[in-house]
Here is the input.
Amino acid sequence: MKIPAPLAKVTRGGLTESIHRGHFAVVRPDGALLDSLGDPDFPTFLRSAAKPFQTVPVVEEGAAARFGFTEPELAVMCGSHSGQDFHVEAVRSILTKAGVGVEALECGVHRPSHRPTAKALADRGEAPSPLHNNCSGKHAAMLALCAHKGWPVEGYIEPGNPVQLLIRRYVAECCGTTPDELGIGVDGCGVPVFRAPLRSVARGFASFAWPEGNPALSRERISAIRTLMRSCLDNPEMVAGDERICTEAMRAAPGRVIAKTGAEASYGIAFIDAGVGVAFKVEDGNMRALEPIVVELMLRMGTISEEEAAPLSRFRRVSIKNHRRETVGLIEAIIDWRGLDRPDKKR
Here is the structure.
């Protein structure tokens, strides 16, 4: 295993207090590794970065057409939403169209990560429901697949359930591997979570950036990916939520990136113009390092200009505040770009 590379630093009082190290890979849809730092084969649980791949069967297997899912509904299936009202209503609509009750959701319950929404719920004396769980869109997609296929919804989160076996196959194929080669664990929401070399994760995102560039994809798979691409690109607020890096990065570069976070500081980006995927993993799992890295990657790839990056300034240099709300430090990306070339898309 190669030594992890410094990716972000924390400074306080003129001193570098902490360094977050990790790995990333830049890959084409055909699997060619264009560049990397650290170990491009670092074994990585995709966590929620897998959600776009997990949603492909909803389209390709015909559930989306049968139930009439809208683009925002498909996008929330690919996302880790903040529990805002429009997210909750989209997930509720998915379940209603599929003829499945909210009680079937087995993702668990947590407060909305969107603080105004969480406060509004508390002020009304209401408790959050499974619909507010950031993974409820993914779970609704799984339940819709069960309804479409005629599979029982009970136990849909179990690794041996038909819907999980189907999803595992799709994730593997998007990433250019096989189901048996994918490691498996349990995600925070109870469903199987998959582990793959970082370069395989990047290839999956490259296939979302330029599906025609992956010779292993069928016409049906390319069409399904294109449908999900449009859904996410046109509805970035459904992929995360207001003031979240995934959504705000996509808003800053409309039609040019699909950005998706995963827990424990995994991340994937589909760079549409370059036709490549980038995946990175902060080795210590600290999520605070993600935002500056994402912005610097977008700049390095030429996806946004310095002017277009201005709305992302709070993500590019993240302020550390004390309990008095005073800024006492900063988190910034410190990626060594000397060996990393900006890729040109080859059609």
User: Anything to note?
Assistant: The CA atoms of residues 121 and 127 lie 7 Å apart.
